[in-house]
Structures are given as structure tokens and as C-alpha cells.
Amino acid sequence: MISFKGAQYPKDLILFAVFSYVRYGVSYRDLEEIMSDLSVTVDHTTLNRWVTKYASAIPDVARMHKEPSDRSWRIDDTYNKVKGAWVYLYGAVDKHGKILDFMHSGGRNKPAATKFFARMLESNGLPRKIVINKSGANTAGIKAINKMLKGFGGPIPIEMVRRKYLNVIVEQDHRFIKRRTRPILGFKTFASAATTLTGIEVAHMIHKD
């Protein structure tokens, strides 16, 4: 559960403000005005603190309420800049477009891909196949997971498929994230980027039921 201990505002009000920011293209000052129209006085710096504190806590609760997914997965990664440096967002959906999970990483390499795939297995079970692009990191990550599964006496290895046209469905999700982050005009730290993007992903997941 998300702890609201010490909060001076009702939790429903805080969650409304956080969801409004991560779901819609509003600035903190715009959101301050919206809250004022609802007869709630809260400044933009407080709204920023709410997003930073609570947006990263919501995914753990959301994952508990996810429905079972199809065993054919689509995985891709995209990127954002934080103070001139590239950071990466891994995302995955099943073949029906249901969001499975996401992860932010400072690198696009085998350790990052392996960590994401392991996290996916933990929250979504074992897939039959995973569709990826031609990324060497993703290829190495799946091979590492298959090796780990074999070591534990797992069933047949996960099938790895490279079909760019099959990944259009997850690329569409990434385009949504890009549209939402464009008004933000960049992030100052990796932590703020990860927190905000996590909130945006969860809001998108909720919107897609």
C-alpha cells in the first residue's frame, strides 16, 4: 500500500493531482490553476513533490491488480535525454497490446536487458515467445534468461523472434510516452525522469484497463 503518513491533504486529492499530471500534458503551474478551480489551494512546488514522491510508488500497487497476459510478448526500448545524457526506457506489451511492464535504465546493454526480462518473468509468468528488434542487448538478455531457466530445470527455452513489423504495437506505446514528455522540456536528474516516466506509464496502463 502507498503510505500517505504526514500528508496534509486527503490522499484522493493527492492521487488526483498526480494522475492528472502524468496522464495529461499539463505543467505544474497549469495544474495549480486547475486545483484552484476546484477550490484547492496548493502551489506548483508542492505538486512537484507529490509527483516525485507518489508516482514511483503507484506501479507496485498497479502490478498487484494486473490481469493475466498472453504468452506472446513484444519488447522494445526507447530513449530520453537527461542533462545531455541518454537514458533508456524498456517497455513490453503482449500481442493484444496489454502493457506488461516497463523499466528505466541508464544503459542499453546486456545487464539492463537481462534485469528487465527477469523482472518481466516475475510479474507476468513465463512467455512462449518474445518478439524483439535487432538489438544485440535484447538478444543477449534473452539468451541469459534461457540459460538461467535451463539451470533451474525449466521447460523448453523461450522462443526469440526478430520481426520489426510485429513490434509496431509496442512502438505505438513509446510514441505516446514521447508525446507526453515533449511538453516537460527535459529532465534535470535520472531520478526525476524515472519517477515521472513511471507515473506516465502507469497512467497509460490504467487508461488501457
Automatic annotation (TrEMBL):
Matches recorded under Gene3D superfamilies: Ribonuclease H-like superfamily/Ribonuclease H
Keyword DNA-binding on entry: yes
Keyword Isomerase: no
Molecular function GO labels: DNA binding
Residue span, DDE domain: 72-208
Keyword vocabulary terms for this entry: DNA recombination, DNA-binding, Transposition
Top-level lineage group: Bacteria
InterPro entries named in the record: DDE_dom, IS_Transposase, RNaseH_sf, Transpos_IS6
GO biological process, one term: transposition
NCBIfam families, sorted: transpos_IS6
Function, in words: Involved in the transposition of the insertion sequence.
Protein name, per record: Putative transposase
Source species: Ruegeria halocynthiae
Lineage, highest ranks first: Bacteria, Pseudomonadati, Pseudomonadota, Alphaproteobacteria, Rhodobacterales
